[in-house]
Structures are given as C-alpha cells and as structure tokens.
C-alpha cells in the first residue's frame, strides 16, 4: 500500500516541547503524531456512531410514542451500579 503525507504542522515551541517530553522510549515525534491522528479519527467515528444511534432512538420513540422517563433510567442505572459494587465487594 502506498503511503500519504499529512500536511506540515506549525505549532508553538511550548507545544512541541510538551509533546517531546511525553514520548516513550524509542518513540519518534512523527509516530506520536500519527498515533494521535489515528486515535482522534477513531474517536470521531465513535462519536458520529453514538449520535446516529441517539437520533435513531429518538425517531423510534417519536414514531411509537414510547418514552422512558429520565428518573426511571437513572434508577435503573443506580441499581446496576449497586449490583456491580456488591459483586466487586464479594470477590
């Protein structure tokens, strides 16, 4: 597969120094930037998918007229959290 280049990036010296300060042993600034871009691309894809699922859920609720009260959702989450805490405490 052919490779492509990202545009050159001009940053303040302090940002470059901060990035260089967190490089792991053997890691280059270029590989750090590449990994950062990959992570951000994945984050944006996940965010788009999350929004799409939320909008689809909203549309289904509108279509069927079935909604769940926020208090009921929070109660259910609280119960799940308590159950997980009890399970973690008994392990």
Description:
- With 91 residues, the chain is mainly α.
- The protein has one domain (13-89).
- It has three helices and no strands.
- The longest helix has 36 residues, at 29-64.
- The model has no long low-confidence stretch (mean pLDDT 95).
Write the layout of secondary structure elements.
Layout: H1 13-21, H2 29-64, H3 70-89
Distance between the termini: 49 Å
Extract low-pLDDT stretches. none
Strand content: under 5%
The best one-word shape is extended
Q: What oligomerization state is this entry in?
A: single chain
Helix content: over 70%
The main pleated sheet reads as:
none
Helical/strand content category: mainly alpha
**H/E topology pattern:** HHH
Number of domains: 1
How many strand elements? Answer: 0
Arithmetic mean pLDDT:
95
Radius of gyration, CA atoms, in whole angstroms? 22 Å
Helices, by number, come to 3
Tags for this model:
3 helices; 91 residues; single chain; mainly alpha
Short description, anyone?
By secondary structure, the protein is mostly helical.
